[in-house]
């Protein structure tokens, strides 16, 4: 959805991404990258005794994967502007397949060359459960950037 210039977007536009399965490698790499080695993510024996009965994928990883599933177009997206109301609604487990759904909920002008676009974003698993919800905001160009 965020692959169109600001003037071609409208409140109410919806999109659904492709799917992606979360792997053991994703979780271990994210542990190493972020230093988040909490046992609920990294220790299978510890996690068996938790309320979830298994390892849980880091919420930050679910967020970055789910918003990236749309494949934003660098020719129109100027910058990530912010995220609000981020909530993890259900746990995501290794082996879950997620897709993202979004709907534009707000737009406002930002100078002569940009607009600010906010979309409601949901990550949805293979059981059709929403596991993440947030308002995701981007700074969008009014005209596609052309690079020679």
UniProtKB/TrEMBL annotation:
Transmembrane segments: none annotated. It comes from the Bacteria. Pfam families: MaoC_dehydratas. Residues 11-118 form the MaoC-like domain. InterPro entries: HotDog_dom_sf, MaoC-like_dom, MCH/BMMD. This is MaoC domain protein dehydratase. It comes from Alicycliphilus denitrificans (strain DSM 14773 / CIP 107495 / K601).
